């Protein structure tokens, strides 16, 4: 993983100074140590569409349209509702009532649930378990707006809400912190995702820092006025009594996106934003109808710790932020490494969010093939991050600046191609930002990318691998690199160009389960890869609420055989069999520098190229008679016009996409039971998950 950060003045300074000449970026790298034909209606690839422009970098603190206060538009909303005809189905997620014309089971269930919320009261303080919640320090004062289906939550300074679920958070007054990122009033709403696949998110109230010209009384009046804005009637006295000048007031709204609708449409993923088995067993959920109405379940007890941060963890984050703020001859480049399940991904998200409190953007070089942060698995990429990462990777996939499709979940099969792919991405890095990164590869990356800071995470009492200290780098040999030559007798060691040193941080992970693979649902590595792929292909769904379209209902592009070359990245396949292997499979959509010239039949590559990849697609079918490939992809047509290569890797479609195709009568497309197991090498594929790797088996000696 690589991050690039543009150095800008702090949020309080004038915005005109943010994009001045004094910019520099920081980078962070991470490496995990550890045939159906279609009928009419196909879309043409050669559509004339305006070329996609590179988006400008966005400032974190910027003006936006605040949620419209209730008392300013209630009458207009009622008129609009009265004069409108049929409404599209909207996922209300706890609203007070639904359109009577909707008679679906979903609508009836949501209607019953919303009415139960209203009957239970509109404030958390009316809960019958208030006494127990007060003992636990978990009483949350919130009020539900039944018209706009949203809640206002008042938090005391220092109060923490640890939760499962998803919501859209807007800070109305004060400051709150989520996974290292500070959200303050005047900023845009941010989506929060806290699924059971990762540790729960926490919202921490940091209080309010009013200007010196404003006293506490003025701050109190301002905070109460903000609360009143968002309700049609006067809020209860109990809620208003909890508001003071140091309070934080946040607006929570249900979060309903094409991604969440697509994931929860599968029965296996219906509780992807619910509680895990441990939280259910320990009854960690806090009864709060207002928070539940917006999709949030508060936690208590041992399950409500959120991210457990050790002392060495805090010191490393603090030192790296200081390094970014300091003056360096060259840009700080940070490498983060560690054993499997040592917390590298979480550390990187926390570090990026902390950097984004002070910078406009971060460039991130993705080096982990199996557990990618912004792309589907099997990709190496360079990404520009301008928004905080407030959820696991599958909730914030995005189009990278540059990407190479490696096609496998690890690099052991071809380490040279892996390193050359990273080098090709590194050429697009300007060297003005912070960075974070099997041992020999790490040594190579430290030398090739001139790393200035190394963060090595570990767990338990014994180190998982040798410490990457500056002394080790002076003598260790990498996969491609060698130790630097010592200085001559007439040359000063400090001035020797090949000798470079770095600052080393050893971080001890102390969270529960450190060093052990996830055993609960949605925590295994293969499940996380499937979630990333499902998230990527959810972009094919309509942005509006409605029925989910299965794979066979998506209109593909028609691509002539002579227009693209086809290759396999992970093994050798006879040219006559490549199309059989690629059909109904994921392919990388790549751009070769040379022009592809076919002579009627398919063009097959003899070697795997290292080239730009613009996204992934599904080769839905091959028409040999007409010489066409049928391709389904979320990549825009203007970008597809430059694609002239399809690379097949061992990254496969999630089985759920094939086995759960709704609206099909008879046999499912791409699924067959008419198969002979008498053929040599044929048979069912058995995958055994949850087995301990040899390196993690404890010896009895």
TrEMBL record:
Record localization: Nucleus, Nucleolus
Basic residues bias locations: 16-29
InterPro entries (UniProt xref): Clp1/Grc3 (IPR045116), CLP1_P (IPR032319), NOL9_C (IPR057570), NOL9_N (IPR057573), P-loop_NTPase (IPR027417)
Compositional bias segments (type: Basic and acidic residues): 49-58
Gene Ontology cellular-component terms listed: nucleolus
Annotated ranges, domain Clp1 P-loop: 338-430
GO molecular function, one term: polynucleotide 5'-hydroxyl-kinase activity
Domain NOL9 N-terminal: 142-277
Biological processes annotated in GO: cleavage in ITS2 between 5.8S rRNA and LSU-rRNA of tricistronic rRNA transcript (SSU-rRNA, 5.8S rRNA, LSU-rRNA)
Entry keyword annotation includes NADP: no
Keyword Aminoacyl-tRNA synthetase assigned: no
Domain NOL9 C-terminal: 555-654
Biased composition (Polar residues): 34-48
Tree of life domain: Eukaryota
Main location: nucleus
Region (Disordered): 1-103
Keyword field: ATP-binding, Kinase, Nucleotide-binding, Nucleus, rRNA processing, Transferase
Family from the record: Belongs to the Clp1 family. NOL9/GRC3 subfamily.
UniProt protein name: Polynucleotide 5'-hydroxyl-kinase NOL9
Species: Cyprinus carpio carpio
Lineage: Eukaryota, Metazoa, Chordata, Craniata, Vertebrata
């Amino acid at each position: 993983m690589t991050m690039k950060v543009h150095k800008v003045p702090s949020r309080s300074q004038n915005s005109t100074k943010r994009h001045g000449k004094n910019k520099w970026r920081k980078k962070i790298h991470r490496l995990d140590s550890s045939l159906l034909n279609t009928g009419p209606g196909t879309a043409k690839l050669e559509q004339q569409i305006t070329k996609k422009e590179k988006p400008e970098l966005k400032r974190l603190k910027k003006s936006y349209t605040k949620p419209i206060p209730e008392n300013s538009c209630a009458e207009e909303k009622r008129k609009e509702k009265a004069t409108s005809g049929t409404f599209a189905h909207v996922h209300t997620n706890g609203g007070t009532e639904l359109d009577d014309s909707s008679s679906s089971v979903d609508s009836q269930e949501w209607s019953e649930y919303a009415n139960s919320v209203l009957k239970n009261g509109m404030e958390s303080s009316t809960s019958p378990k208030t006494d127990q919640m007060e003992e636990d320090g978990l009483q949350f004062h919130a009020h539900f707006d039944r018209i706009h289906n949203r809640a206002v939550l008042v938090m005391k300074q220092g109060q923490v809400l640890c939760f499962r679920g998803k919501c859209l958070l807007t800070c109305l007054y004060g400051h709150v912190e989520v996974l290292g990122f500070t959200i303050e009033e005047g900023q845009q709403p941010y989506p929060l995702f806290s699924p059971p696949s990762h540790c729960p998110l926490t919202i921490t109230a940091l209080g309010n820092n009013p200007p010196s010209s404003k006293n506490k009384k003025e701050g109190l009046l301002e905070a109460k006025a903000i609360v009143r804005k968002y309700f049609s009637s006067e809020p209860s006295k109990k809620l208003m009594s909890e508001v003071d000048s140091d309070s934080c007031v946040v607006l929570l709204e249900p979060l309903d996106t094409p991604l969440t609708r697509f994931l929860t449409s599968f029965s296996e993923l219906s509780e992807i934003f619910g509680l895990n088995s441990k939280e259910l067993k320990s009854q960690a959920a806090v009864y709060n109808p207002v928070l539940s109405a917006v999709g949030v379940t508060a936690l208590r007890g041992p399950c409500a710790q959120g991210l457990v941060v050790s002392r060495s963890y805090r010191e490393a984050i603090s030192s790296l932020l200081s390094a970014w703020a300091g003056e360096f001859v060259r840009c700080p480049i940070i490498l983060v490494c560690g054993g499997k399940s040592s917390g590298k991904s979480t550390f990187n998200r926390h570090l990026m969010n902390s950097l984004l409190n002070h910078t406009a953007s971060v460039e991130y070089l993705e080096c982990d093939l199996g557990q990618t942060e912004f792309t589907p698995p099997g990709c190496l990429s360079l990404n520009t991050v301008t928004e905080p990462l407030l959820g696991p990777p599958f909730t914030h996939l995005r189009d990278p600046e540059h990407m190479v499709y490696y096609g496998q979940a690890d690099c052991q099969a071809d380490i040279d191609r892996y390193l050359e792919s990273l080098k090709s991405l590194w050429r697009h890095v300007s060297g003005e930002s912070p960075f974070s990164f099997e041992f020999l590869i790490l040594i190579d990356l430290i030398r090739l990318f001139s790393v200035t800071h190394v963060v090595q995470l570990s767990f338990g009492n014994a180190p998982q691998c040798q410490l990457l200290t500056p002394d080790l780098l002076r003598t260790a040999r990498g996969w491609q690199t060698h130790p630097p030559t010592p200085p001559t007798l007439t040359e000063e060691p400090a001035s020797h160009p090949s000798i470079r040193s770095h600052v080393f941080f050893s971080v001890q992970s102390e969270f529960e389960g450190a060093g052990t693979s996830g055993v609960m649902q949605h925590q295994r590595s293969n499940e996380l890869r499937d979630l990333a792929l499902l998230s990527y292909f959810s972009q094919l769904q309509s942005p509006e609420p409605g029925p989910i379209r299965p794979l066979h209902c998506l209109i593909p592009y028609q691509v002539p055989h002579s227009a693209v070359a086809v290759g396999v990245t992970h093994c050798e396949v006879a040219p006559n069999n490549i199309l059989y292997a690629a059909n109904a499979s994921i392919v990388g959509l790549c751009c070769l520098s040379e022009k592809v010239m076919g002579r009627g039949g398919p063009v097959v590559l003899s070697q795997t190229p290292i080239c730009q990849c613009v996204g992934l697609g599904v080769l839905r079918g091959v028409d040999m008679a007409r010489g066409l490939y049928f391709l389904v992809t979320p990549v825009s047509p203007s970008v597809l016009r430059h694609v002239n290569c399809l690379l097949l890797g061992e990254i496969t479609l999630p089985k759920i996409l094939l086995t759960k195709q709704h609206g099909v009568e008879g046999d499912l497309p791409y699924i067959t039971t008419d198969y002979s197991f008498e053929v040599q090498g044929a048979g069912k594929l058995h995958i055994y998950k949850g087995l301990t790797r040899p390196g993690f088996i404890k010896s009895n000696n």
